Structures are given as structure tokens and as C-alpha cells.
Description:
By secondary structure, the protein is of the alpha/beta class. It has helices at 17-28, 59-64, 75-83, 130-139, 157-160, 174-178, 201-221; strands at residues 8-13, 41-43, 49-54, 70-74, 93-96, 102-109, 124-127, 146-149, 165-170, 181-190, 192-196.
Amino acid sequence: GEAGTGRLRMAVQKKGRLADETFDLLKRCGLSLSQSKNRLYARVQEMPIDILLVRDDDIPALVAGGASDLGIVGGNVFEEERAGGRLGSRVPLVKPLGFSKCRLCIALPKEDTYSQPADLGGMRIATSYPALTEDWLEREGVKGATTVVMNGAHEIAPRLGVADAVCDIVSTGGTLDANGLKVAETIYRSEALLIGGPLEGEAKKVADALQLRIEGVQRSRD
Ligand code: ATP
Ligand code: ZN
């Protein structure tokens, strides 16, 4: 909880694609932030909420560990942490927010023929989403495929000879195309999620009031 401060804490990405759309949502909710984004916290003026500004990758663990009451994070990051068993027993509740949409895709060199998941059998797949990739491979019954964890430049892994395929976030496909790769499968469709709770007492009241504002913004978009 909100120990000591009496203010709800919500973790959001400090800087990046998700941050841009998150700050836009808060603005549309009629909320303004007091501090510069250089600090760890920004205060919401209109509600008792402190915004914790962090790397998106840290948000699921901060919320699951109770350091933050709420968080806004991509489903890709949240589900990878969950599938990897890193959230422990306190897996937070989830509400889809409808923005920061992207796909997690398996891609292959253009010259490879691909018709079905079994074609990936025995391949080494470069990814920063090993848990989501391995879960999908298992669900599809792909035999002998393994993941190679890379934290960037996945799209060059096949040319480097360190992997046969890639599993990464795709938006337009331009990066894949430029590296001689094509999408074989979409394994996860992601959007931003509001995560956190269940909360009690005053913290729950504030979180409910925030959710009402978010729902208002969502309705006005539909
Ligand atoms: P950080 O410094 O916080 O770790 P990052 O480099 O991991 O930042 P960004 O590139 O800002 O992250 O992307 C954050 C999230 O935005 C992604 O995890 C994903 O949920 C979402 N997203 C939406 N569209 C895209 C896209 N086209 N490419 C990558 N991520 C996207
Ligand atoms: Zn990140």
C-alpha cells in the first residue's frame, strides 16, 4: 500500500512509447502532474496519487511486490513476467486500456518456406520473450525448438548465425523486411494494461475513482 503518505502509488513508464500514451491518458482523465519527469515521482494534482516513473520492465514486479499499488504496462511485458513465474503468488488484477497495441511475432528468413508451427521444429529462436515463446511452442506442439535470449538486435540474429528465427514485437514489419525476415506467426496481441490490487479501504476508493475517469475517456473514444 500507500503506507505513510496516504497517497495511492501508480508505476508508469518514465520515457518511451508506452509513456507517451500513458501521459496522454492521464491528461484526458483531467489529471495534471506536478513534477518534472526527471524525478522518481510525479504528483497528481487533482487526486491523491503519486506516479512512480520507471522502466516498463520493472512495473509488473513493483506492483506484484506491493511497492506500487497500480501500474500501467504492456501486456507483452506483464504476460512475460507472469509466464516466467516471476510475479510470485500476488498476481495483480488486469484491465485492458486499448492503446499501445502491438503484436509479438515469430519471423523467419524470407527464403524459408513456412506453412505451420511444426515447421519451427528444432529451430533456435532469438527473443526477449522466452517464457511467452516457449509457452506458445508447447501449446502448438512444436518439437525441439529452443529460445536464445537477446535484449536487442534480434532481427540480425539469423544473419549472425546465432538463431534460425526471431520472436519480437512487430508494428509495421519494416524492420523485419529490411533484415530479410517475414512474419510466420503472431503469438500474442498486446495492449497497455492497468494492473494492481485487489485493494482495500481508502486506496480502493482512489483506484475506483481513477478507473471511473479512465472509463469515461474510453467511452468518449468509442
Ligand atoms: P524502457 O526504457 O522503459 O525499458 P523500452 O525500450 O523497453 O523502454 P518502448 O520501446 O518504449 O520500451 O516500448 C514500451 C512498450 O510499448 C512495449 O513493451 C509495448 O508494450 C508497447 N509498444 C507499442 N507499440 C510498439 C512498437 N511498435 N514497438 C515496440 N513496442 C511497442
Ligand atoms: Zn523496457
